[in-house]
Write a structure and sequence with these properties.
CATH class: Alpha Beta
Order of helices and strands: HEHEHEHEEHHEHHEH
Strand order of the largest sheet: 3-2-4-1-5-6-7
Largest sheet: 7 strands, parallel
CATH superfamily: P-loop containing nucleotide triphosphate hydrolases
Number of domains: 1
Structural class: alpha/beta
Oligomer: single chain
Distance between the termini: 44 Å
Length: 218
């Protein structure tokens, strides 16, 4: 009986989150802002990638930085003089549409073209929580192990773009980047995959091109 109640409560939460996510997307669409949910484990390179994109892209960019304690990553983005909102999730290991809704209220959407939403560093918890973004980009690194995709299949099934980072150290850590590509393609044949090294900026232009293409086609 308790298990049935738990399932019903969980179902209600997900339905409510989906409705809020749809409302978030309507707000973004009305403001003509393209939003990207950036997911990945701690240390994968999410923050560094967003920093490079802010620096290299011509579009006006804003950022929502979600984390258990968000001030650290939010502080990194603020150095680029772009609109930034830090969202503290406390004990929660993911952002949800309700938190993002409040952040949208405080962002100057009329001054932005692209909004990056950096989710909490985790490959499991954020999977089921739609935020209302137009695109999901998953960032993983070879240093996490080349079985990372196999171990976390759900997040890759819903991804629009997968960035495999730190390929410059693949040999040193005994990882096969091509295996990670194949594993992701088996889970999601339509997903775009870009191998990169943010340290050397290899793959960065391909990532920028991918984002622009996706933005044009929504």
């Amino acid at each position: 009986m308790h298990k049935i109640a738990d399932v019903e409560i969980q179902h209600d939460i997900m339905v409510a989150n989906k409705k809020l996510a749809q409302r978030n997307q309507r707000i973004l669409d009305k403001a003509d802002v393209f939003s990207i949910d950036v997911l990945g484990a701690i240390g994968s390179g999410k923050t560094s990638l967003i920093e490079l994109l802010i620096d290299r892209m011509d579009e006006k960019i804003g950022v929502i930085a979600g984390d258990v304690i968000s001030k650290f990553d939010a502080g990194r983005f603020q150095k680029y003089n772009v609109p930034v909102i830090g969202l503290n999730t406390g004990k929660e290991c993911h952002l949800d549409a309700h938190l993002v809704e409040h952040a949208l209220e405080d962002l100057p959407l009329d001054e932005m073209d692209i909004l990056f939403v950096e989710n909490v560093g985790n490959l499991i918890c954020p999977v089921d929580f739609d935020l209302g973004s137009h695109m999901r980009m998953v960032v993983i690194s070879v240093s996490e192990g080349d079985d990372t995709v196999e171990k976390h299949p759900l997040i890759f099934k819903d991804a629009d773009l997968v960035v495999i980072n730190k390929i410059d150290i693949a040999e040193a850590v005994g990882a096969d980047a091509e295996k990670m590509v194949k594993d992701a393609k088996m889970l999601n044949p339509d997903v775009e995959i870009i191998k990169s090294s943010l340290k050397t900026e290899e793959g960065l232009e391909k990532i920028i091109d991918s984002i622009k293409r996706f933005k044009e086609n929504i």
